[in-house]
Amino acid sequence: MKINITTHNTAAKTIIFPLVENEKLAENLSKIAKHVGLSAEILQQDFKAGAKETLALYGAVEGLEKVYLLGLGKAPKAIDFVKVFRSFFYNSKKKLPKNVGLKLKLAGLEAHTEQIVNGICLAEYEVGAYKTDAKKVAEFFTEDAVLEIQVAENHLGSAGKSAEIGQATAETQARIMALVDAPANYKYPQKLAEFAIESGKQYGFDVKVYDEKQCLELGLHALLAVGRGSTENPARFIVMEYLSPSATLGERSSDSPLPERSRRVGLVGKGVTFDTGGISIKGSASMSYMKSDMGGAGAVLGAMELAAKLQLPVHLIGVIPSTENCVDGNALKPSEVISSYSGKTIEVIDTDAEGRLILADGLSYIKKNFEPDVIIDLATLTGNCIAALGYAAAGLLSNNDELANELLEIGQDTGEKLWRLPLWDDYKDMMNSDVADIKNLSSAPVAGAITAAKFLEFFIDGHTNWAHLDIAGLAFGDSEFAKMKSATAYGVNLLTTWMRGIN
Fold first, then answer.
1. Which residues bind Mn(2+) 2 (predicted)?
2. Residues forming the annotated binding site for Mn(2+)?
3. Annotated catalytic residue: which of 356, 367, 417, 439?
4. Which end of the chain, C or N, has fewer beta carbons within 10 A?
5. Cα(503)–Cα(497) distance, rounded to whole angstroms?
6. The domain 182-500: what is its CATH number?
């Protein structure tokens, strides 16, 4: 699908008018009534512009076959534009022709072009990639289709750039959703590595993949311990690095306009491609959804790809420790004491608390080898976080108020909401071990999301600008776009939007 931004009336025979439920609605409906040759009173009676409300009008004037009125609700936020447009185009894409006009000018919605285009492009994604009766691509999403967006003259340039970002973001989000939705036999550590390599080649960032022998040489003992139970699909350690052409690694000279050094951002994502729980095995009721336990890795892969695609002026490092957590005679056992990349020893209380073990190696590695200015890790880590926050927000734990506040604010805009939980040392003693430097699970059945973060904090080696995002309830869930739970690409837009604003 090609997107054209124009100030002129579109030649498309199918037109969409998005409208906000506000004091200007009656005036805007009157203008539309004249445009389509209908009664303003009838439109005002039949359409109230509630969120996702639609009204289809047919062929009232020559050259115009169909008009849709699309409601945005009262005072819509940025994420509401994504939701409304994704819903409308997902549910309508089989009925839409190749050429569609979208009039933002009437209601003055040009400032939300990025979110609107993002929602429209996300509507193309379908969950059923492995069905044998593959669905035909909707005409609207074919290569020769055209979406023509009308904007006011003074928004022409900015809307064009915003549309490009919205479309690029949606393309990457869809790739990550497909990856997270993939079943366990199609997605294992080597497949994550291949995704990273292919993405790096296409968009211009470096990728290094360490196999199990190289992981042992590096000293990634915690990662390898978790992967012991998976003999067919051994662990992989993925390290990605992106430096934009406009970024710099050097120091600024007295006469140079360049910054002293582009901000160095480190991202670490949990990449457990399937989690049985190990010896501390999970119940069977929802184990099939554990194909999504690499949602944090998906967010990091997506953020790397999108940052490179948009050529953000940052120095970005992404680290993904990836493994399956399976059960066989070699599997990690509760009570074992294992080592880690940091050299610290860990008493394993529960093998289903495996995500924090592999993140411990990832965090220690990125801190020691890259010294990022900021470290952010993302993981589908604890059921306790879902118990605390449900499915509306991810947990945020950070040792830096400025970073935490930035992420909280951006999450409200992108719809990837966060809620901050305390990282106080009151919880530190709950992770004390009698036989090792730390244990991987508190014996108390409370504050599980917080004690997991305290465990991770143990491995950042005093870094003072770190945030941990527990995305267990957000990376995979229910939606109108699938009959079962499906991927959301949570974190991709959040991280990228944050990086767009840090320089």
1. 270, 275, 293, 354
2. 270, 275, 293, 352, 354
3. 356
4. C
5. 12
6. 3.40.630.10
